[in-house]
Amino acid sequence: MKYAAIASGSNGNCYYISNGDDAVLVDIGINTKHVLLRMGNLGIDPCSIKAIFITHEHTDHIRGLSVFCKRFQIPIYITAGSYRGTRLHLPEHLVNIITPDQLVEVGSLRIQGIPKTHDAHEPCSFMVSSGGINIAVLTDLGCVCENVKQAIADADILMLESNYDEDLLMNGRYSYYLKSRISGGLGHISNKAALKVFLECRSVKLRHLILTHLSGENNTVEIVERTFAAHCDGFRLSVATRYKETALFHTEEVVYTSGITRSSESVSMNSGTQAEILFPEVRE
Ligand SMILES: [Zn+2]
Ligand SMILES: [Zn+2]
Predict the structure, then answer these.
(1) Cα of 61 to ligand 1 centre, how many Å?
(2) 57: domain range?
(3) Is 8 helix (H, G, I), strand (E, B) or coil?
């Protein structure tokens, strides 16, 4: 299978998963122009996307949804609560309402919904499977519930939220309300919490861990790397950043490589600054 984080961070999320025959997106939280640019960088044809799965209605997960699904006539799968939350009125023939724990088949891909805790109307994560390989996308986790633990245990490829550094959040400029929202069980999980549940639940079959949905204000790639680097024996570790898409990874290849990769390696500070302006952090 092939997979990439096209965008990842509190300002925009979009994940691509394909088995060569069929391809889906999980979330589309940057605008269509930038999705297309980044897909172009990875050699992905937007017409090859068979479906878009939406985890919840926050802007950083749906910003590009309306334009992209209409332009390419791509069906979307979304819970009733999330759809209501988006306040979008998309063409009826493209909208498929699912339950948070529904299993959907898109061609030869199986996509399992995984209910989660987050301050949205009816949020869920997704596990995409094909040929015995499970790719889990777990972001916006208010807390580490049993569903999250099970998904980590089942994952061959794991895209896991590592949202904030506890010290940066607590000592930073966010208001008390915002600090409480992020860390209070309905927002996001910290680097420490992500590492703890990962070490507790990961399976020996795990090939690749990609840390995702980093906060721009309360985290850095360096802190995340430092937190996880000592624990990456036997699998590949990557950190997805907001500035650039990751590589397009292949499940057959990642098992043979090791070390840390990050998606901003070839990007200058200029484009980073531009990304901050284009995608200001709103509701995560
Ligand atoms: Zn988010
Ligand atoms: Zn969210």
Answers:
(1) 6
(2) 2-272
(3) coil
Q: How far is the CA of 190 from the centre of ligand 2 (A)?
A: 14
- Ligand 1 centroid to 200 CA: how many Å? 24
Residue 104 corresponds to which tokens in the numbers above?
């959907």
Strands 14-18 and 23-26: antiparallel
Specify the pairing of strand 133-138 against strand 124-130. antiparallel
* Tens-digit pLDDT profile for residues 124-180: 999 999 999 999 999 999 999 999 999 999 999 999 999 999 999 999 999 999 999
Total count of domains within the chain: 1
Any domain includes 279 = no
Q: What is the mean pLDDT of the chain?
A: 91
pTM: 0.91
Span of 135-139, 171-175, 222-226, 271-275 with lowest mean pLDDT: 271-275
Residue pair 56/98 in contact (Cβ under 8 Å)? The answer is no
Ligand of minimum distance to the alpha carbon of 61: 1
Question: Would 282 be classed as within a structural domain?
Answer: no
Residues 98, 264: Cα–Cα separation, whole Å: 35
* Ligand 1 midpoint to CA 240 (Å): 14
Say how many Å lie between the CA of residue 229 and the centre of ligand 1. Answer: 24
Residue 98 lies in a domain: yes
Query: Which ligand is closest in space to the CA of residue 163?
Result: 1
Ligand 2 (ion): residues with CB under 5 Å are: 58, 140, 284
